[in-house]
Amino acid sequence: MTFGFFRLHIIGTELNERITTMAIAANLITYLVGTMHLPSTTATKIATNYAGISFLLCLFGGVITDTFLGKFRAITIFSMIQLLGTILLSLATKIPRFRLMECNTDTVPTYKCPQATEFHMGIFFTSLYIKSIGMAGVKSAVIGFGLDQFDIKNKDEKAQLGVFYNKFLIAISIGTILAVTVVVYIQDNNGWNWMFRLCSITGFLAILAFLSGSRKYRYKENSGSPILQILQVIVASLRKRKLEPVLDPDLLYENADSDLTSRINHSNQFQCLDKAAMKTNGDFESNRLTPNPWRLCSVTRVEEVKMVIRLLPIWAATILFWTIHTQMVTFSVLQAATMDRSLGKFTVPAGSLIVFLVVAMQLTCIIYDRLIIPIRKKWGKQGFTNLQKMAIGLFFSIITMIVASTLEMYRLSVYREHFTPGSTDTVPLTVFFLTPHLILMGIGEAFMLTGQLDFFITQSPKGMKASSTALFLSTLAFGCFGNSLLITIVQKATAGKDGHEGWLAETINQGRLDYFYGLLAILCFINFGLYLLCSYWFKVHTSEISPQQQESVVQEASLEETNL
To answer: Which stretches are transmembrane (predicted)?
Structure first.
């Protein structure tokens, strides 16, 4: 069986999403500082809040897709919304009325230029969030729609599923690299308007390519929203909170029509939720054989919710990693903008420095797959478990922040040695001086990303894998929000009453970003200890699950692990 050219159309949709999203994410901070003339800390908080909201929108996009639209219609509609957003961004950066007048930063420091008005900010961010809504809808549906094109009961198609997943990940990598190199370079040399024009063209072509395969796609009916199912269990248990618990699990309700192989046996953890499966008068409406799902849920449904709850401590312990990751793609860009970015006659865009993080992540995945796993197999061991991978990622976050703090301390010393405070001259250090901590962050991300995906997919019930993926994406969202909160706290705690700006000043050369990175290193160390406790708790409680429940949790996991 051939791979199917029409399946590449689906991958092309994700490729376009990555190009447009990452091109904006990589250089948004420089636009806010260099074009809208906002203080660096304000710009950083705006950029990270935008990223956080975008990832949270993926949750709502998933609910709308699963409950109402279906994957094909969701991809089509949200792709058009994303295209509309990029067209509006192109107009917002082209029409003089909608954009801020230019300020000559060669003669006037950026922080003394007039800042963007509420009108300019409103136009730009309205367009930006329209694009973000489209991105969230596409992202929540595209991978699931791609997997729908394969029949896992067919051996040939099941083998091709792994090929699709690998091509999908390659598309994400290629899209990211193109965004932070080619597209950012075009923006840096020709302006933001040209970048958004290019994104609009690629978006239009991606929609045409996706729709051209509509006759060959396979369409599956919606299975319902997993989030809605979780809410039903919670509501049903709260309604019966005053009832005495049932001592015999056999007395709890189970759907007699369900497949025996998909049932999950009762567990003793979180017994307050068991009340959702206790039968009472009024649970079955008149002339209906099935119960009201907001009053009575099956044991299997309750146990699925318990499984999701078991994931939450690990979920919480991994949020700080993505807070650190956000620092790398915001403050590192600001640092790069102050340094020597020349490479012969070529000037490296500040936002393109992120390519070192992306390449390091990809090389780490290749080395792990081609070198580390074969070596461990020779020792009679398999690859690292998902919990071990996440632990390695958290460990690298500590090292990353220590190195970043040390490098920033040296950069500031060079600046103070050559210039007086307030100078906007270029620090006589090559921009590639910043690459060590970006490479370390990329290595850590390789382990954290694959570990989290593997963990949330294989440790969740089969019917809730969509929500478990959304749960993973929410760690990225809360990591962005955590970054903004941390910046606000540090600003207020370190700013002096005499007008001293503290560690995070309006211009990066006037602050002490090295102290801030040092604080993050300490927080990462504490978080690493908490993660080890959470992972131990998780292993203890999952070891108490019955063999039947473990089988339900890990079914098809081997295929997912191979793909990851």
So the answer is: 20-38, 50-69, 75-92, 168-186, 192-211, 311-334, 346-368, 389-407, 427-449, 470-495, 515-538
